[in-house]
Amino acid sequence: MGGIEFLKGHGTQNDFVLLPDPDGRLELTEARVAALCDRQRGLGADGVLRVVRAGALGEPSAGEWFMDYRNADGSIAEMCGNGVRVFARYLVDSGLAAEGEFVVGTRAGDRPVVVHPDRSVTVHMGPATITGTSVTVVAGRPFSGVAVDVGNPHLVSLLDDDVAGLDLRDQPDFDHDVFPNGVNLEFINRLGEGALRMRVHERGVGETRACGTGTVAAVAAAFHLAGTDTGRSTVHILGGRVEVTVSRGASTLSGPAEIVARGELDEAWWAAAGS
Ligand SMILES: N[C@@H](CCC[C@H](N)C(=O)O)C(=O)O
Fold first, then answer.
1. Which atom belonging to ligand 1 lies closest to the Cα atom of 83?
2. What's in the keyword line of the UniProt record (predicted)?
3. For residue 112, which of 9, 89, 124, 149 is within the disulfide window of CB 3.0 to 4.6 Å?
4. Is ligand 1 within 6 A of the CB of residue 202?
5. Does residue 213 have its Cβ closer than 6 Å to ligand 1?
6. Are residues 78 and 180 in the same domain?
7. Is the domain of 215 the same as that of 101?
8. Nearest Cα to 17, choosing from 100, 79, 78, 87?
9. pLDDT in tens, 71-84
10. Mutate which of 123, 211, 254 to test ligand 1's pocket (most atoms within 8 Å of Cβ)?
11. What is the count of structural domains for the chain?
């Protein structure tokens, strides 16, 4: 019997295991996702992207394909901006979609994507909605932030001192009444006109080298703090840089997306990982 097909890909070093599963037959438990993403006993990744036909998991979409996204700890999240780019890259590379524009279904709703000839991908990310303010505490130090909904929850803190100095190894604290389902935490510096530097601690993962929804939230928050709601910005993250636009009711994310490997999971490993 053959093993279970997987691919490995990344978008600005936010890395994913892709599981092509058109009919949604795989039993993708929390334990299996966590084992796959484990960098010692599994393949290692920030998350899993299961590639299923729209409707196979009962999720509505006008597109042909649905991204079933899971965080490294096995939890389900509504949306992953870097994941959608890598997902789209896979569909095109595998001949399941044509280069150009098509729609990917996600739990946050349909996301139109454009796969460009230079291999970069633009995602129409929908609205980035400012929902209030809150506080996060990193290593005993409180930071006030702007809460932003990009389909998933974010809290963005603008710092005067360099974000490079933050120690994000431990889970920062946050207000669980404001974010009962957890939150992604972004820390940003302004780098002059039209550019930000960002570090991120992702819900269900820990610090990652990039977070697409986080960069959109960061740009929306930075513009909000500057008294506007429209503009474009380059966001520098540990894994590279992306381009973001925000306007009232809409946003886009553009950046690279790569598939780096294809292989088969061992059936016995998969069976053991489920228990
Ligand atoms: N890395 C992602 C976001 C993944 C989901 C997030 N950890 C959450 O739980 O909301 C991105 O590129 O947007």
1. 12
2. Amino-acid biosynthesis, Cytoplasm, Isomerase, Lysine biosynthesis
3. 124
4. yes
5. yes
6. no
7. no
8. 87
9. 999 999 999 999 99
10. 211
11. 2
CATH number, domain containing residue 84: 3.10.310.10
> What is the value of pTM for the model shown?
0.97
Q: Which of 250, 238, 214 is nearest to 82 (CA)?
A: 214
Known catalytic residue at 211: yes
Same domain, 133 and 236: yes
Tell which one of 37, 82, 152 to mutate to probe ligand 1, the residue whose CB is within 8 A of the most ligand atoms: 152
61 within ligand 1 shell (Cβ under 6 A)? no
pLDDT tens by residue, 121-180? 999 999 999 999 999 999 999 999 999 999 999 999 999 999 999 999 999 999 999 999
Note whether 164 and 93 are same-domain residues: no
Q: Are residues 174 and 243 in the same domain?
A: yes
208 and 82 Cβ atoms separated by less than 8 Å: no
Which residues, at least 6 apart from 127, have a Cβ–Cβ distance to it below 8 Å? 149, 150, 249, 250, 251
110, 219: one domain: no
The response to whether 189 counts as a known ligand-binding position is no
80 is known as an active-site residue: yes
What is the atom index within ligand 1 of the atom nearest the CA of 152? 10
| Nearest protein Cα to ligand 1, atom 3 | 80
Q: How far is the CA of 177 from the centre of ligand 1 (A)?
A: 20
ipTM value, please give it: 0.99
Q: Write down the catalytic residue from 43, 48, 113, 211.
A: 211
pLDDT higher than threshold 80 for residue 101: yes
Residues 162, 107 share a domain: no
Q: Are 99 and 92 in contact (CB under 8 A)?
A: yes
Range of the domain at 19: 4-120+257-273
